[in-house]
Records
---
Amino acid sequence: MQNFIEAYSYANLSFLVDGLLVTILVSVTAILLSFFIGGLLGVVRFAKIPFLSKIVGLVVDIIRNLPLLLIIFFTYFALPQVGIKLSIFWAAVAALTIFESAMLSEIFRAGLNAVPKGQMEAGLSTGLSYTETMLSIVIPQAFKSMIPALVSQLISLIKDTSLAVIISLPELTHNAKIIYGQNENYVIPMFVAMTVMYFVICYVLSLLSKYLERRQYNY
């Protein structure tokens, strides 16, 4: 118990919270970017644009089958070799965005494919253009069915930020590692603290997903 009291000093907890804030900032930034890019890639694949859709599909499949850690190494260590040097923060954001965009694109594509084809035909028959039909009819319907899968993937993104400890991103796991690295008696208290913090954030998002799902099906 004494170890826990000492480990949870104001200075240590403040340091952990600083790391948590970085985790949240990286997650939110990557979520916004990957949501936009992933949605765009999903629409391109759904539209079956000659040549382009196949190229996008190939790139997405390659990224989805690579370890996220490899992509983090690539953005931080390999890109500078071709003249693109990113800070630790943006290297982590870039890696997460690349990986999650590929994952989200499949969710978007599956959601769009789930919308009955008659909806597209009905929109076009009323005089709407393809783009107008997609934006006003198809995508809104698809988005409702995608919500649970999207939230689940975003929860995974938050947990994946911990992998950026490998490039010394000062996020939650990194800061906890520094604290227990200075005193081995703080290992268990720090792991407990990390567990609680990650659990609270991810559990709140999972509750949000269930709430949105219940609203969608009205039960």
Note: The longest helix spans residues 10-47.
---
Amino acid sequence: MTEKPTTPPAKKEPPRRRAIWRIGRGRSGGSLGLAIFVYWAIQAGRDVLAADGDPNNPMLSKLYPPEGKHGVQRPDNAELEESKLWLANTLAQALEHNASLAIDLGGGDRVSEELASESHLADFLKANGVNPTFAYFTGPERDDFDHVYRIWKSAAFKDGDSILFLNEGLFRSSTRSADPFLWLKRDARLKEMEAAGVRPIVFPALTCMKYLEGDDMNVFDVVAGKPKADGTMVNPLWKHMTVKWLEAFQHNINEEGVAEWLP
């Protein structure tokens, strides 16, 4: 009797894992950006942890609390040694759970730079099957970009994929017709970053955000159709604008071909 040939089992690919590290000044939209990336990962059924080490803006831990499936404990303070211990424990937790990671240490200080440089972060992540993404956030003000460029030039964050998010929501003007980043697109420093592989992506403005905040609602609850604290619903126009805003941001990311760089 002739034995039938057997088909070898298909090789199972390891789970896609990313660690994305927010870089930029405080109030540059970095925490919101990371929250969106975590939201998309959860919606797609991918394992992800939201690591909130921002001492000034605990947005991530409010959306993804430490006791929940996608949260981690916050550091006790913002000192370098405490942040180092927190990062080590957070990375270990992500590796143990085969999860991607969104890291927010806030903006405006050098703790995250020192941590990334001292720990050889990218090498560590790659050695453990996690691809690093460095997410720079800037507003249209020249000081915002000066800050981002200095950090990028310092090479504290190297050997990973890098994205520069241009946050239109920080444009201080009553009109939206002008391109707030026109000056930057002509700047030789941006061309230098692009030549090195940094991908610039527009982070659109959500012009109704102040009304959502006035209702004490976050964008994800609005998209999900959750009621406000008093039981009433958010204005349907605000919901429509929020959904379109998220879609536009995702379109920009897909168009630039960096969706795989996110958790």
Note: The beta strands are 18-23, 48-52, 100-104, 131-138, 161-167, 199-203.
---
Amino acid sequence: MIETAVFFLTTAVVLTALTYTPVVGTYLSLFQTLVHENGHAFMALATGGKVRSISLFYTREGLAETGHKGKLGQALTTFAGYPFASGMALLYSWIFTSGWYSGLMLGLVGLFIWNTLFWVRNPAGIIWGLAASAGGLYVLIENMEMLKIWIMFILGVLLLTQSVRSAWIILQRSLRMPGDAGDATGMHRVSRVPSQVWGVLFFAMALAAAWFSAGFWLQWDSSVLIQRGNA
């Protein structure tokens, strides 16, 4: 357990540092951005609305343009981004540490392809989506088992750390600039509840998801990343 915790934390620190680099950092960060925007998109569909487009920017930010049926649908769609990203981090942690690597990668590649074909419309997002889809398909087709596990591990750590980091950033913005705090401000506009409240809620949900995710990661045997390579 101690070895796994140290390995996970070391990876988390390294990946967090990499997200601050110009090119690699942008590529890595847009994964969590896509998941976040998909939260808005799926909620719009679930509440009878529609998805017009998703944009992924080199600034690491994203935008989901959706249509809604009524104020409740609009409110739920606006709310869904951060909780969805946190929930996906938790679900991902459970699936990966359960050893379902192939199924997880198939699901992710399918998500990349779907977004690239039907939702993502801006050039930067399309380029990112094509690269992610092509890379994932190549690993699957060539049956590169060890590389697949490593990629899934890196993306899992990245999704978890970035879901907490992005929620922390929006919490800070809601406290300092409540009128320009992304989804927290959006929720204030549709509910009249202060942006700060939503910022706190988003961050609390991210921490809760991270806490329960840690339980899955600590029970996982990290030596599988080496043993599989030597098998």
Note: The chain has a mean pLDDT of 94.
